[in-house]
Design brief:
Elements: H1 5-23, H2 28-35, H3 39-51, E1 55-60, E2 71-75, E3 81-88, E4 91-98, E5 103-110, H4 117-135, E6 140-147, H5 167-178, E7 182-187, H6 188-199, E8 208-213, E9 217-223, E10 226-228, H7 260-263, H8 265-274, H9 287-298, H10 301-322, E11 326-330, H11 331-352, E12 358-361, H12 368-385
Parallel strand pairs: 3-6, 6-7, 8-11, 11-12
Antiparallel strand pairs: 1-2, 3-4, 4-5, 8-9, 9-10
Helix pairs in contact: 1-3, 2-3, 4-5, 6-12, 8-9, 9-11, 10-11
Length: 398
């Protein structure tokens, strides 16, 4: 059954907007070429989108002949502001951007261990509000939050997790109450995988696993281009994986006896102490990442070999179950280890598993969480802003 005229117009409008979002400003002729639509149809959709305030003329091409085809059309990026929030056990980082992801303001706030929940929440909310105000007078349309812990697939809420601060969960509700914006939350490792797939080490991989190595350990599973969360949102809880070399076994409430015990930040610091490796962290750099970066620079092979052997245990287990073909070592530690650590892990995995597995270093490091949160907020805002309305145009924000 053919689409109605209004539905066809809405489909064409969204197609044009997605092209402008991905490729940047385009002329009418370029839109015609990329969409396969006729010249009159392209002219009509440009007029509709300009009338709705979604696109505007942002310049002209270098063509000598002036006219409609020489004009460059781009999305009105300041139509909406977005916020990305990276929630860690030690603090919060906020980035505010326009609709196309251009960063307008950024700020961080440390939160001390043992801080009162109400105090930590109030300070984090104020940080988001102040950063949004510095970005300009546009209200926030969407806020994307990346946090450690499990996100319930049914409710989209952070679940109560042993060992994580209570203020993490309360922050989501507080932001919903205070901001005129849609608030979304996702596990930090899942967001990192989204960012690595879009802009980082997994751009050419439709199936891969990202192993996050930071303060704790986790994994994100992407199969056939789609993120897989599991029945309860717990797919990738790699820290609980029972592996040889630990003092005991993990329990339902404690991952201390699992893979976490071998490769967490504390474990990496302990390995470095045994090998008498010291490092001077750069500003805002975790100690574990600084140690790995220094080991790579200094050629500290015994330290790197031990760490690679430990990482290979988890990677080989993931490979045996999922056969992803590609594993990205993510987080600040994976990024710091670079190709040197990734190659060592790949060699050890090849000894443990018959399945060919490429091991890559993160291209984005710890910044992948913020970038993934921003992508989540952008997609949600664009889905609403670009949604068809009753007359076949494009919806406006509520």
């Amino acid at each position: 059954m053919p689409a109605s005229p209004s539905t066809a117009r809405a489909i064409n409008d969204r197609l044009a907007l997605r092209l402008l979002e991905r490729e940047g400003p385009l002329t009418a002729a370029q839109l015609k070429q990329r969409t396969g639509l006729s010249r009159p149809t392209v002219a009509d959709l440009i007029e509709r989108l300009r009338r709705r305030g979604l696109i505007t003329v942002v310049g002209e091409t270098g063509a000598t002949r002036r006219g409609p085809n020489a004009r460059l059309y781009g999305i009105v990026a300041d139509r909406a502001h977005l916020a990305a929030v990276d929630v860690r056990t030690q603090g919060v980082t906020v980035v505010v951007s326009d609709l196309l992801g251009t960063r307008l303001a950024e700020a961080s706030l440390p939160v001390r261990h043992g801080s009162r929940t109400a105090t930590a929440v109030a300070r984090a909310v104020r940080l988001v509000e102040d950063t949004a105000a510095r970005a300009g007078d546009r209200p926030l349309h969407c806020v994307g939050i990346g946090a450690p812990g499990l996100v319930d697939p049914a409710t989209g809420r952070l679940r109560t997790s042993t060992g994580l601060p209570a203020w993490h969960r309360h922050l989501v509700t507080a932001l919903e109450d205070r901001l005129p914006a849609r608030v979304l939350v996702e596990n930090e490792t899942n967001l990192a995988a989204r960012a690595e797939q879009r802009d980082g080490a997994a751009r050419d991989a439709r199936t891969f696993v990202l192993c996050w190595i930071g303060q704790g350990v986790g994994a994100a599973v992407v199969l056939d281009g789609a993120l897989r969360r599991g029945a309860s949102g717990g797919a990738g809880e790699l820290g609980f994986l029972p592996v040889p070399g630990t003092a005991g076994l993990p329990s339902s409430t404690d991952c201390a006896g699992g893979f976490h015990a071998l490769v967490s930040a504390d474990a990496i610091v302990a390995i470095a102490a045994r090998h008498r490796l010291v490092a001077e962290p750069e500003p805002h750099e975790p100690v574990a990442a600084a140690l790995v970066r220094t080991a790579v620079a200094d050629g500290a092979h015994p330290f790197l070999d031990e760490l690679a052997g430990r990482l290979a245990l988890g990677v080989a287990a993931v490979t045996a179950v999922l056969d992803p073909g590609c594993v990205v070592l993510g987080g600040e530690v994976g990024h710091a280890g670079g190709a040197v650590l990734a190659a060592r892990v790949a060699d050890r995995v090849a000894e443990l598993s018959p399945l060919a597995t490429e091991v890559r270093a993160s291209a984005l490091g710890g910044g992948a969480v913020l970038r993934g949160a921003l992508l989540m907020a952008r997609e949600a805002a664009q889905d609403e802003l670009f949604a068809p309305d009753g007359d076949g145009g494009v919806g406006t924000p509520g």
